[in-house]
Amino acid sequence: MFVSDMDHDAPNTVLLLLGSNLGDRQDLLFQATKAISLRIGTITGASSLYETAPWGVTDQPPFLNQVLQVQTSLSPEVVLETALAIELALGRVRLQRWAARVIDIDILYFNDLITQQEKLTIPHPRLQDRRFTLIPLVEIAADWIHPVFMKSNKILLEDCEDKEMVTLVS
What we know:
alpha+beta, 6-stranded antiparallel beta sheet, about 30% helix, globular
């Protein structure tokens, strides 16, 4: 885990999902985690790494996924802008939805905020449908209540019908 040198006065808790299925996946997650700690806030929780089946476009390599809990003083919009800048710096090119990627950083939750903007929806609109999101999320935030469904992440995982592969790596 990284501790940021930034003095954030961090009143906000954000949960981020990191994923990579191109290149040195583990190193890319490490680099993204380091950049998040330097540019977004203090990482206060990190799940294990999980290898997961691709979602949407299935003819691609498996992903490594991890969930981070971060304390930040940034707004949700600035967290999104910063996450996109980190993706770009690590080589992310957006050509097709759900395509293979060197890095992906998604905002799952931001406190108990519910918002739907043109480029930002919180909570993440599909987190309840995806085991590759819920399994690492439950590892570090099982009792976090989804502000739309009013269910804990643990209950969302129990209710999830997704049967895709999710394997603990480390």
